[in-house]
Amino acid sequence: METTYDIIIIGSGLSGLICAYILSKEGYKVAVLEKNKQVGGCLQTFVRDKRIFDVGVHYIGGLDEGQSLNQYFKYLGIRDALKLQKMDLDAFDTIGFDGDDTVYKMAQGHERFVDSLSQQFPKEHLALKNYSQAIQDICHKFPLYFLETDKPYPDNFKHLEINAQAEIASITSDPKLQAVLGGNSILYAGRGSSTPFYLHAMVLNSYIESSWRCVDGGSQIARLLVKQIRKEGGAIFKQKEVDQFLFDGNNIKAVQLTTGNTLNCKHVISSAHPQQLSRFVRNEGGRLRKAYLNRIQRTKATPAIFSVHYTLKPNTVKYINSNYYNNKTIDVWNTIENNAKDWPSTYLALTPKTSTSAIYADSLSAMCYMEYDEVKAWENSFNTVSNQFSRGADYEAFKEEKANMLLTQLYKKFPQLKGNVLNMYASTPLSFRDYIGCPTGSLYGFERSYDDPMRTALAVQTRIPNLRLTGQNVNIHGILGVTVSAVLACAELVDREKLLTDIVAAT
Ligand SMILES: Cc1cc2nc3c(=O)[nH]c(=O)nc-3n(C[C@H](O)[C@H](O)[C@H](O)COP(=O)(O)OP(=O)(O)OC[C@H]3O[C@@H](n4cnc5c(N)ncnc54)[C@H](O)[C@@H]3O)c2cc1C
């Protein structure tokens, strides 16, 4: 007899895997369907010149004892097995600017954060204390962020409607400090005209609490979760791309793969980019309202990224236990707008942590914004490990030119790279589009906006009674953000109170 799954989960990114673990642990028969050869979505890694590179996740916040991600990971049974490197206590992130030799340091722990930046901005000690308090206060408006499970949600949306740039400017009038506090805005694709303060605060606060690199890459998180899911009886199928839903009345009765095969199910949770919903429902019979689908199609995406992994000659460049964010100017809230005319307006550079050397880095990774239009000429190509297709010599030449341009910028701040780069491996918005399934290769899914917060966030529940959504478009992006999104999706199918109690009680 054909198997019927209680729950089919589309996508094996962090949110999909967490849903699979929770629901199989709760006794459901679960299957995860992943279109790629490797599980993990943004947690995937790849190897070049025997070096391991992260596609997405470069560092994680909030993993110290008593902090929320630590508690979520304990519940998932993966915390103790993670191979992590705690980042520099005095500087998990460093912020720099062209034409300024000072490196501004963001330290771990709120007190240390305030004290350390106060040394660089002596007149701004009170402002920094107020900033630290303001980001913590707004995070407390989201009960699951700090696992404050008894706390009700606020009864209005005022906390979602604060503009990040304006709020920071109201806390300090020092333009350089404003720029430093927004200097790592690539972390949340910050844009002065739209970014809400809560988004800035949730991302920054989690790193200020504590910052960690995954040793030998973030795919270990996905691998550990897969083990946990299998232990609970869940199934994970790779290279299974969902193409459409088949209905029985209002409910989905099966999902059909691109191969034409079908899998029967009672419920579906999708972590795929919401723009795929139109494809999944083919909208026969108006199962999802046109207005809803149109809103999803029209919602602005966060920008796309160009990333380059530079492999290094052995034992030449020292590992750096901090990230470095460079900004061309102090106009950090317009880096997305300024990118086309002054590329790259901002970049992140970091040395991944490996288990092979305590002293040296074997590579340096850098990423910066890239407009999708720059790669539009090749948009009809599709290239992943399981579907290898060359986009052509002109595409390779384009990548090489850009990687060299970025390297020229990097030399200014990292002169130790000169003469020590072996090879460059670049990915463009098309790589992210093809691997992750987000149109235009957007970094973090939908762009959130303070002036219309409801339009730019999606609910877990949909009009199809047995279809729920999870992932970075439902809550916010990032490891903690999507973990919470998975808990929110599962809380619709299991006893919410029990689930939260179990998470809080996990040891
Ligand atoms: C370059 C980059 C750097 C980042 N750095 C960090 C960082 O340092 N720290 C941090 O906390 N966060 C970081 N993030 C954000 C974080 O990685 C993501 O927010 C999070 O991992 C997203 O998880 P997800 O489950 O929502 O989706 P995804 O990881 O995008 O997973 C979705 C999955 O669905 C699959 N899929 C899509 N369509 C289908 C289909 N039709 N059928 C079957 N499967 C399908 C995809 O292949 C994918 O595996 C970064 C993101 C990027 C892109």
From TrEMBL:
InterPro entries reported in the protein's UniProt record: Amino_oxidase (IPR002937), FAD/NAD-bd_sf (IPR036188), GDP_dissociation_inhibitor (IPR018203), Retinol_saturase (IPR052206)
Domain Amine oxidase, residue spans: 14-316
E.C. number(s) listed in UniProt: 5.2.-.-
Annotated keywords: FAD, Flavoprotein, Isomerase, NAD, NADP, Signal
An annotated Gene Ontology molecular function: GDP-dissociation inhibitor activity
SUPFAM superfamilies: FAD/NAD(P)-binding domain
One record GO biological process: small GTPase-mediated signal transduction
Protein name listed in UniProt: Carotenoid cis-trans isomerase (EC)
